[in-house]
Amino acid sequence: MQPQTDRITQGTLRTSTGQPLPLEHTDVKARLAGPMASVELRQVFRNDTGGPIEAVYLFPLPHEASVYRMSFQIGERTVQAVIKEKEEARRAYQAACSEGRSATLLEQERPNLFTLSVANIPQGEKIEVMLGYQERLAFDDGEWRFVFPMVSTERYQPGKPMASGGTDQVHDGARIRPPRPASKDRAGDISLEVELHPGRAIDAPRSPSHQVLSEPLSSGWRVRLSPADSLPNRDFVLAWRAAERGVRPQVFFERKADKPGAFMLVVTPPLEAPPDAAEAKSMGGKAVRCGNCGGTLEDPGAVREVPGIGPAWRCHYCGAVVSASRQSPGRKVGLPRDVVFLVDRSASMRGGSLPQARRAVRMMLDKLGPEDAVQLLAFDHDRVPADGLGEAFLPLSPETVGRLDSFLAGLSARGGSELEEALERAAKLPVREGRTRLVVLLTDAAVGNEGRLLRRAPELLGRDTRLYVLGIGPAVNRYLVEKLARAGGGASDVLLPTEDIETVVPRFARRVRQAGPVLSELRLSWEDALPVDVYPSPIPDLFGGQTVQVIGRFSGSGRTRLVLTGKTATGEPFRQEVDVDLPDESDQVPGLERLWARLRIDSRLERLAREPSEAADIRLEVLGLALRHSLLSPYTALVAEDSEKRVKEPARRVDVVAAAPADEDGTLRKKSPYTASTTGGPMLDGLEGEEAPMSAEMADEDAMFSEPEMPPGLAAPFDDEDDPMAVTGSHGRPMAPPMPAAPPATSMAPGGAPPLMSPAVAPRPPPPAPRSVSRPPPPKRAREMALSEEESEARASPAKSLGGVLDSLKRMVTGRSEEATPPPRQGTTRRGGMALRSDDSDTYSKEQIDYAAKKGVGELDLVFLVDETGSMGAYIEEVKSRLLEIIDALEGAPLCRSLRLGLVSYRDHAPQDATFASRVVPLTSDIGSIRQGVERMQASGGGDGPESVTDGLYDLVRLDWRPKAARVVVWVGDAPPHGVEPSGDGFPQGCPCGHHWYVQAESCREMGITIYSVGCLPGLRGFAGAEDVFKTVARTTRGLYLPLTQAPVLVPLIVGAAESELDRQRLEEQLAEVVTQHEQVLAQADEQERVRYLTEMLQQQMVRPRTMVYEEGQSTPPPLKFRDLVPEDVEAGLDALRRAGRTTV
Fold first, then answer.
1. DSSP 419-476
2. I need a labelling partner for 834 at 20 to 30 A (CA). Which of 30, 451, 588, 920 fits?
């Protein structure tokens, strides 16, 4: 069971019963002075839940942020936090919780993820939490950038699931998994204001991520986030350039009187060296130029002997020392390159990220030389190569480029990011003599095993391969992108979804083409050669356009000189001298000392990863640094305790959800409509559900994203009415002709007026209130239902179904015309059994049947997924005795032209069951084969309560499904998979097969397999969380959950489910026609506007789905009814068309 105290979530506060606690507002104020950013973050919540609460939420910050201050305000009281050792801080917080005092606890989960707990918030109070942090500003290619992350992408977690909610590779997985809000819920707005004081003339700042309002100040600029762009769903970025070309070396100081001081050195990056150190002036003379900054040397005659360089000049602009000799390079550069592109095609790369990756790869290919060779590998969770391009390098040619581009164009986002396996595959490619090997990784780095990857990357790639990483997406894990590139000896960059690709990718491509740093082996020392205590340590290699930013400490004062040495790309020595005047006291950049401590902590933790034997010493040093400088770290936390008791009753715990990143919520991209899953969310009672550790077999683009429904395992379980696809309501009601559909709105109508929404838009009805479901006490394991005497007699008479057997055999021999359109059958029955169809079902018109036949609708692949353990006897016998009737009914269905059946049954793993975990009858049209498999089923065994459900779901994905068939699974069971509820589970840490049930459900969704889960009651409700699993699997795959209390209803449910899915094919054909007719205008609209327009167009054509209507406890066959078309139908249809490659819209 997952401990309640470990459930960490993100964003809008929500109580354990689902009642929202709105995030009213987030306010960010940043002051950027020189190379430093000081940020104040304030978040305002209000508790209107009816009682005191405890709130816990997860939020991102920059990975180099030095978080040092926290306070909270409730009412008129403000309480300041203090830094403590983490366990001590937790004890203090828990004591305040139990005593009714308000308290806050801030902990670091990752360098860029933090958890805030707020205890005992009284009813009706407004809560304000204030945080303060500082960080270095980034500089790249002449441009400074300030980044404020507003949302965190959920991170894929490789490895085997564990009972704690994590995996064997990501032990704290439950704490770093942010759920998402319902799509109808909007996270609180954010306001952001930046005051920019660069200390020198700059060009007007710009934001490549958001709309901003800028105004000049006497010493800089003030930039505000536009109110029109205030949804916190992607990283905020502000960029600016110095007005003058080139930046002189700069040194900034902080020092208290009679104390050692801290300094930051910002060293300009080398420009591309001129063709020759002596360039011709336009007037015909000679001018000696600096090979570092390009500046003209003031006194070419001032040559001095420099150790390691020889006779040289010193540039008075940048301090670089320029050799006076004209020797050739020390080593050969410009070797042909072997470049491996690794493209992340996982779920979090959906939307705009994958197309951006394609364009980026194409642009980089264009920058390579004719002698270079390439290979491209796309990866997700799958251990089977997904590229099909072989294992050798391909010569760079127009044919190769076209082939790679076509392959990328066919990719769709799915599954999780198995980065380690991708790097292993790249490392297995041959290393060819006389060539430089590079690996270029394009990813959002949304994974949870960062530490393992940073250790493994250098081991896998070796010293002869450099790794370049381009982060792509609205909320990139910048920590891993930067650190992974550094560990692999390469460079990194980040491409935003709203940023012009021509801005970032050419710079990144240039570095890839250079195949290495422009400066390496960098060292900083004083003029007398004494080393400087600076961090990061070692100083990272410099790639073209980058700058060196180091923070160090000093103890003396007066004029001295810092000397930076290293090697150039050609192997020649590099030296740059910077004159400094060390102050006795300075507050030029407050917080430098704290930043130095943070960088030293990072350096020590990196050493800990390399030298685990030094853990004790490193922990003590890190703890001392963090306590001395009031810094959050893996070993410290900020805690604030109110001395006043504020609540008398126990506070309820609430969870926090947040706006999804832009490529998840569709704000910045053409969002895939295939988003009805409910991934992401807290875990309760051990049910991992959408918040389950996403293991190595995930295979769906939505496997890491949240949608409206709450995840399984919440206090209030799923209910059928909550499902947006539930088939209840006014089915069959005549629909009034709709008003004409307005064309899809583009970003701005002609004349600059905003687009108008059509009055024909049908608003979605609010979901009904969830019902409370009382769970009966656990029944005995032997809960087999008795058959009625009439049923037993019927099953004992094989003659009654002989005619069906003969008819089936006849069809097998003679076949049936593909164009035949059999008449609809109503109320198909058998003697002694329930009718297979309801007499109350709506019938198709002749025109509808003819249209479906003309469009080729009617291929049906139907698979039974059956729990074959001892408690399932009644249901198994029902299928066995009526199998031929099922076949006859489906083949006679109005839309069915071709039928194949399959069977997957499961029991359990040894020692719980010694027979089998799962077994399969492949999809086939051979009735004899499927009948033999069904007759073989025997309700027996099972061992403990949970069964090997996961094995059965895993087998479904690997069946031979036909490309154009309706893919339907009817899952019948009364027990959960392993790993949901530890009590009574022989495998409480998850299924021994190593997979996870939710991952397999996502895999089914990716493949277009719809699962109708039939939960056999009351047995299923005897297991905590079991019914939620059944609901989640159905909801994730766009099926229905069907609670069943009477075995005879099972067979009519199977027939109804199959016919409902055949009708979806009819709807998809009608949708495809409308999309084709309006493809040009649809391509210019966003996804929400497309769905709105297509829904209205289809409503005008009186298109109505025909679906099964079923309610719990129903004892008659469920009718098939026409109902009104809703946007969810269009979203599902669009996704099916895209998956089949029938539209590019």
1. HHHHHHHHHHSPP-TTSEEEEEEEE---BS-HHHHHHHHHHHH-TTEEEEEEEESTT-
2. 920
What crossing angle do the helices spanning 1050-1077 and 1087-1100 adopt, rounded to 10°?
A: 100
pLDDT at 1124 exceeding the cut of 90: yes
| Distance from C-alpha of 161 to C-alpha of 292, rounded to nearest angstrom | 52
**Please, which pLDDT band fits residue 156 given cuts at 50, 70 and 90?**
confident
What architecture does CATH give domain 4-242+638-645? Sandwich (2.60)
**Cα 372 to Cα 335: distance, rounded to the nearest angstrom:** 9
Q: What is the CA radius of gyration of the chain?
A: 33
Token readout for 1025 is 């969380």
Picking from 874, 883, 736, 734, the residue whose alpha carbon sits closest to that of residue 792 is: 874
Euclidean distance between CA atoms 479 and 297, whole angstroms:
40
Dihedral of CA atoms 348, 349, 353, 356 in degrees, nearest 10, equals 160
Q: How far apart are CA 505 and CA 905, in angstroms?
A: 51
Distance CA 1069, CA 365 (A): 39
Whether the upstream peptide bond of residue 767 has omega within 30° of 0, thus cis, is no
Q: Which amino acid is at 272?
A: E
Q: How far is 27 from 1067, CA to CA, in rounded Å?
A: 46
pLDDT tens by residue, 782-808 = 223 333 333 333 333 333 333 343 344
Q: ω before 538 within 30° of 0 (cis)? A: yes
Cα→Cα distances 8→60, 107, 168, 313, 695, Å: 13, 11, 19, 59, 19
Give the DSSP H/E element, type plus range, for residue 112: none
Pairing of strands 77-80, 66-74: antiparallel
Q: Please, which residues bridge with residue 862 across strands?
A: 901, 968
Cβ-Cβ contacts under 8 Å for 380 (sequence gap 6 or more): 344, 345, 346, 347, 386, 414, 415, 416, 417, 418, 698, 699
Give the residue range(s) of CATH 2.60.40 domains in the chain: 4-242+638-645
Q: Which residues contact 501 (CB under 8 A, 6 or more apart)?
A: 356, 359, 360, 363, 495
Q: What is the 3-state secondary structure (H, E, C) of 851-887?
A: HHHHCCCCEEEEEEEEECCHHHHHHHHHHHHHHHHHH
Residue with tokens 């994730």: 1036
pLDDT on residue 7 = 35
End-to-end CA distance of the chain: 44
CATH 3.40.50.410 residue spans of the chain: 337-514, 775-812+836-1062
Residue (of 516, 514, 537) closest to 525 by Cα position: 537
* CATH 3.30.70.2190 at 337-514, yes or no: no
Q: What is the mean pLDDT of residues 508-535?
A: 84
Q: Check: CB of residue 345 under 8 Å from CB of residue 412.
A: yes
In whole angstroms, what is the distance from residue 1130 CA to residue 373 CA?
Answer: 44
Q: Please report the sign of the dihedral spanned by the C-alpha atoms of residue 363, residue 364, residue 368, residue 372.
A: negative
List of residues 6+ apart from 275 with CB closer than 8 A: none
Question: What sections of 568-614 are H helices per DSSP?
Answer: 592-610
Tokens for 180, please give them.
């998402």
Strand segments, DSSP code E, in 156-217 are 189-197, 212-217
- pLDDT, average across residues 1095-1115: 90
Q: What is the pTM of this model?
A: 0.58
For 110, the 3-state DSSP assignment is strand
Angstrom CA distances, 164 to 174, 705, 1002, stand at 7, 21, 22
> What does the DSSP 8-state code read for residue 37?
E
> Which CATH code fits 775-812+836-1062?
3.40.50.410
Largest Cα–Cα distance of the chain, in whole Å? 114
Give the tokens for residue 856: 């080729």
Q: What is the DSSP letter of 1130?
A: H
